[in-house]
Amino acid sequence: MPITNLRGQRIHYEDTCGAKPVLVFAHSFLMDGSMFHGLAQRFCSQWRCISWDARGHGRSEGPPQDFSYDDLADDLDALLAHLDIRKAVVVGVSQGGQVALRCALRHSARVRALVLMGTQASTEDPQKLPGHTSLVQEWAAGGLSDPMAKGVAHRLVDAGWHGITEWQAKWARWQPAQLLRCFAAFAGRDDLTGRVAALEQPALVIHGGRDVCVSIPRAQAMAQELPNARWLQIPGAGHAPHLTHPAEVEAAMARFLAHVGESDMHLVAA
Fold first, then answer.
1. Which residue intervals define the domain AB hydrolase-1 in the entry (predicted)?
2. How much is the pTM?
3. How confident is the model over 206-218, as pLDDT tens digits?
4. Cα torsion angle, 187, 188, 192, 194, sign
């Protein structure tokens, strides 16, 4: 479980290694790279799978100053450079999808293709942001109560998912300053609407039919703006469909990755 110093941050990552084309996984807000253990296990026979913990999440250090999603995109680029990876397919969920889009915009040569789940190109829905803000502020002030933990689970995954208690235990350990700083990056992100049309990379957009964080119209708007995107809606899935509906997500990714192409898959720098 390596930790490396990148751009003034101590970043934790996991790497299956091997001379294979690369999948790199970017997690959602309040989660960490371990949310991709299932996907990494599924694809590691054919792909080098890398997951990492963004600033302030998981085992990566929380920064002493504010940061943006552009910073996270630059961190991802720096991690791939550190690992001598020339190009990768970036798989992002929610916040991780926002980071993936920004990495493709800021470091286009590094991104071979995109798999986006629970993601929108726009800023946070103004009808939902006050509720998110109120929950985080109450959490930071007085700790994570059981009803709040259920609310977070409902938003981020699914309150009835079999693995949710492990994540609720992790959320209870978040420190207030760390929580507020990470939420500030989430709530203060800039709008990519109108910009993602410049992305020529193939993209697979997967969205849960019961996602309560990102509405279907917002996700569809992003998919329609991306010039080379495929859309898949999974009925019954929430904000993290790869956790609750792994078979459907893994099958869709396998089909997509089979058609991404091998022409420039020489991903490890000579």
1. 21-246
2. 0.94
3. 999 999 999 999 9
4. positive
